[in-house]
Write a structure and sequence with these properties.
Layout lengths: L4 E2 L5 E11 L3 E11 L3 E9 L11 E9 L1 H7 L13 E9 L3 E11 L3 E10 L8 E10 L11 H4 L8 E10 L2 E10 L2 E10 L4 E2 L1
Antiparallel strand pairs: 1-2, 2-3, 3-4, 4-5, 5-6, 6-7, 7-8, 8-9, 9-10, 10-11, 11-12, 12-13
Length: about 210
């Protein structure tokens, strides 16, 4: 199947294809490929047709990877050409198994060559219920050089702001009953910064 489209922002899908097999119980979309002018997304999806049922959801498997070009991000979230200054694209991978009651993401990775590499695992529960939805994730971020962040700051601030290189961030993040929690350790040179934070999604309050 082939599909092309162009969104008003200029984001353009130039190529898509997949192989689909379906029976009375399940759907298999293999070799799914979507290309834009600057990005490429590939995935294999296997799901039961009742995967999104609230009471007894069927199984869902997703294995996906993407190369996201900053040219597309600039069209979706324009920031005065900032994204176009990024030399390396953003790469993403994810592998998930389970159902809407409990979905295990055994591999999450986001990387930008020379800048950062984030890896982690996560579990999400009750995905179809906004009140009961919960999640836990453990992340490791190797941060080599993120000086590009200073491009987002006013010039006078950026000139006096120093971002250490070769940092390590270890974090546990959770969501339960509308409350987001985070415990993180940031290792930078000889320093260790420990952070604990809580945020209420409904109360919009920090702790």
């Amino acid at each position: 199947n082939q599909f092309v489209a162009k969104e008003r922002s200029g984001l353009e899908i130039v190529e898509t294809h997949t192989r689909v097999a379906m029976n009375s119980k399940s759907l298999n979309a293999s070799d799914l490929l979507l290309k834009t002018r600057h990005s490429k997304i590939a995935a294999d999806v296997l799901m039961d047709l009742n995967a999104f049922d609230e009471k007894a959801p069927g199984k869902l498997h997703v294995d996906a990877n993407a190369m996201v070009g900053w040219g597309d991000i600039d069209k979706a979230m324009p920031m005065e050409g900032l994204w176009n200054k990024m030399a390396a694209p953003l790469t993403l991978t994810m592998k998930a198994d389970g159902n809407m009651k409990r979905l295990e993401v055994e591999n999450i990775e986001a990387a930008m060559m020379g800048a950062f590499n984030v890896k982690g695992r996560a579990v999400a529960t009750d995905l179809t219920d906004s009140l009961l939805m919960g999640a836990k994730a453990r992340l490791r971020a190797d941060i080599m050089n993120i000086d590009f962040v200073k491009s987002m700051m006013p010039a006078e601030t950026a000139s006096s702001f120093n971002i250490p290189k070769n940092m390590l961030l270890l974090a546990d993040v959770g969501l339960q009953e509308g409350k987001v929690s985070a415990d993180a350790n940031l290792h930078a040179a000889d320093a260790l910064i420990m952070l604990t934070a809580n945020y209420g999604l409904y109360s919009e309050s920090y702790k």
